[in-house]
Design a protein that fits this description.
Layout: H1 13-37, H2 39-59, H3 72-101, H4 104-109, H5 117-143, H6 152-180, H7 183-198, H8 211-218, H9 221-233, H10 245-248, H11 250-276
Helix pairs in contact: 1-5, 2-3, 2-5, 3-5, 3-6, 3-7, 3-9, 5-6, 6-9, 6-11, 9-11
Length: 278
């Protein structure tokens, strides 16, 4: 019986790019089909954002006053957008660690596919599922009174920042999932992500925090994305003139965070995946 023959690796950079994209899109489809086979996980991922809008909007909204006045639910929605964006870190970490612990990663390494296609598949699928969650949250926000007041282009810019940062965070999650290599360990890490998103301006202003805690909150990328969305949507909670740099320039801060995350974790993730197979 003849040994199977695999297609040769393309010799040109453009050919390798096409190869990577083709394999990556195949794995995106694989991740999405896995969600269809686990409808409970998909339903929970879609319902959770709507529950957060109702819970935080009406529970916190009755007790928190916004500096300068304004509707708390309009103040809250950008923070919830940012919080759901950072859920990408936990979701991709768990998905990659699960594949690694079940031997799926080893199977992928034995196949004639581009090495960067596997993390590309995980991160691409997370962005698509994140768009569904974002759409559900936008609908829930509109129902409770949230509105974007600055027109179409600033609104699209805000959503583009959300998607960009989510994609960058998904690469960080992909790297963490490869490092832990165990779904039980990844599951134990999940509670650690929540304080990171809570230590921000998502739900309450940072002005009343102690100085050291306010410094951490102001330089948290969650706060930068929240402030950028409030600015672009025209929602209450604009930073004061003496705010820290990420709060005074939130759009630039989000772009900087996204570029740094991609520059660090894309090559690091691909290199880690390649080394695990040696």
């Amino acid at each position: 019986m003849a040994a199977p023959t695999f297609p040769a690796v393309p010799a040109t950079p453009l050919g390798r790019l096409r190869w990577t994209l083709a394999d990556g899109l195949t794995l995106v489809g694989r991740e999405l089909s896995r969600l269809r086979q686990e409808p409970g996980q998909l339903i929970a991922a879609l319902i959770f954002p709507a529950i957060m809008v109702v819970l935080f909007g009406y529970v916190f909204g009755s007790a928190i006053t916004i500096p300068g006045g304004g509707n708390y639910r309009e103040y809250l929605m950008p923070g919830l957008f940012a919080m759901v964006t950072f859920s990408s870190l936990a979701a991709v970490t768990m998905a990659v660690a699960t594949d690694a612990s079940r031997g799926v990663m080893d199977r992928f390494r034995s196949m004639p596919m581009a090495r960067s296609a596997v993390p590309f598949g995980h991160t691409g699928a997370d962005v698509l599922s994140g768009l569904l969650s974002l759409g559900i949250m936008v609908g829930a926000g509109l129902l409770v009174g949230w509105r974007a007041h600055r027109g179409l282009m600033p609104t699209l810019e805000a959503f583009a920042l959300i998607v960009l940062l989510r994609y960058a965070l998904s690469w960080a999650g992909c790297y963490l999932g490869m490092v832990v290599k165990d779904d039980r360990t990844a599951d134990q890490l999940m509670p650690l992500f929540l304080p990171f998103t809570m230590l921000s301006n998502s739900f309450v202003p940072t002005g009343g925090m102690p100085a050291w805690l306010r410094f951490l909150a102001d330089w948290n990328p969650t706060s930068a994305l929240t402030a950028a969305c409030r600015q672009l949507f025209g929602n209450p909670g604009a930073p004061s003139g003496d705010a820290a740099w990420p709060m005074a320039h939130p759009v630039q801060a989000v772009l900087l965070w996204a570029l740094v995350l991609l520059a660090v974790f894309v090559p690091l993730t691909v290199r880690t995946y390649q080394r695990r197979g040696r």
